[in-house]
Structures are given as C-alpha cells and as structure tokens.
Protein: DDE-domain-containing protein
Organism: Dendrothele bispora
Amino acid sequence: RVVGHRGTKTQHKQGNANHENVTAIITICGNGSRLKPTIIFKGKHFQSKWQNNNLICISENGWTDGESALQWMKKDFNLQTQEKANGETCILFMDGHNSHYSADLLEYCKGNNIEILGYPPHCTHALQGLDVVCFAKQKGCWKDEVNKREETTGRGVNKEDFAKVFGTAFIQAMTEDIILAAWKATGLIQFNPNIIKPEQMRSSEITSTKSTFPLPQNSPTRAIMTAFREYKFTNLDNSSRPSTPVPGPSQFPDSPSMLNQNLFATPFQDRMNIDPSLYPSLLTPSKHMRFLRNGLSSTASGSFLVKKTKATHEQMSRLIQNPTLETVPANIPRPDWSLL
C-alpha cells in the first residue's frame, strides 16, 4: 500500500540520502558475451569488505582517471580478452574521454596487439551500444535490486553491498540477446552504416543555445559591468557640471588639469566619442574606481560595499535577493546554414 496525495498520478518514493560517485566500467563483446565489470569507488584507501567477486579499485573522486584506465586495461580487459582474440588483433570501441587515451595506455595496447577505435564526438547516443540498448535495461534491474535490498535489510545500499547488488542487476541485464541487439542497433556488427538515420545526426535545436546570462544579474553586478564597459556618470555628476560643445583634439590644452576640467564639462554621450588613445588620462584606474563607486552607491543591495558604516546580518538578508531563472528569448534569429 502506498499513501499519497489524491489525484496525483505519480507517487515519489523517498530514497537514501547517502549518495556517492561510483563508476562501473562495462565491456560487451561482439559474440554476445560480456566481461566482468570493474568498479571504481571514491576513496584513498581500499577496504577488503568492499570486494565481492568483482574487480574493484579506487580513485579520489570515484571517476576514471589515466592511472585507473591503464590498470583496467592491464588487469581486466587484456586478461579477459586474450583467449578470445586467439592471437589476432583485438578491436576495442571506446568513448572519447581524454582519460581513456593516455600515452602509457596507448603504448601498452600497441605492444599487446590491441587497437582502439574512438567514437566521434557527440555521436555516442547513436553509436555506443551500451547507451543505446543495454543501460536502459541495466537501470531497471538496478532499481529493482536496490528496492529488494532496502526491503530486506531496512537500510540503503552501502559500499559493502554495492558489488553484490550491482552484480546481480548486471547479470540480469547483460544477456546475450541484449548484447547482440546493441551491436546490431548501432550498425557495428554486422557493419551496416544505413542503420544510422539522418535525424539522429541533426543539429541541436536553436533554443538549446542562449545569448544571455543563464541567470539575471543583480544590481551590483550590473553596476560593475556598466562602470567598466561604459564609464557612465551618475545623474548627480551629469547635473552638477555645465554642458559645453565637444572639444576637438586641437581644442584641448596641454595642461592635464585643464584637460580634465574641459573633459568633465562635456556631456557623457559626447565624451564617449573622444578617442582614448589620444588622451590616455581618460582611462586611469582612479576614474574607473570613481565610476564604480558611484554606480554601487546608487543600488540598494550594493551600497553597503562602498559605505564606511558596516552592514549588519539583518541588512544583508534583506538586501540580497534569491536569483530566479531567466526565460528563453522568444525571437532567436535562425542561422543561414547556406553561408557555410
């Protein structure tokens, strides 16, 4: 029996909060067989209770790195495929992650008659048989085994349980029929390039890219960006200085003090048209900081950064707002691919 909200089609089950990265290197063979998976735990020291008739190693983040990939090639892949290869070249299709192609690993493969073929970038969704066929069933079997384990023991799956629970799901999922179907669905064995349809290799949807920030920037950030991009004066600065025509290069006197005096009597829009390469004093760090201070002092949530009085925790919690997700722009120009 499941107790949930009336009218809700999907009832979610609370899972174990004890989550950690664990990597399983899985290899399937063209004849429908499979190799024993290698499990990589996160940690610095190996514990014997983790082992349960599986090849297990450790890394600091629980992912595959250059050293673990080399050890997998030596102690796992090569030992399990030598007899199958029977002296012939062993072909290995492998993802294009850089940790899989270290110089030491390639040298070892070259000396042991192993040839590595890497999948092209962004094509594993169509060419990687494990992704296309096998892992979907693997995830279902894994979920069932985790539920059985939790119902039996009353607790979540820990490291000492992982090898047995994962191994049971792995044996159930990686059957000969599933493995052969994976090779056929990707057109690798038997080789059939017509399996891959054009729609599988089409470009990404236009709405998958955005030309703006993923989150709207808060007022202090916008003030800083404006200060270093536009050097804009505040309203008080503009209103406190009289407006005069824009001086040309010949109208500026040689005296720096006279230059600054004439410049600050010029409206902001006209000052932007003055070439800074002719007058380097326009871009001094002190002016940047003055523009920045004026911009921050005009914002509610950034004024405490330039004030001498210290901001309290109560003020901070009131001023700093939580960011909200920005919507995708409605009208995104469609690229003209014919220009290529």
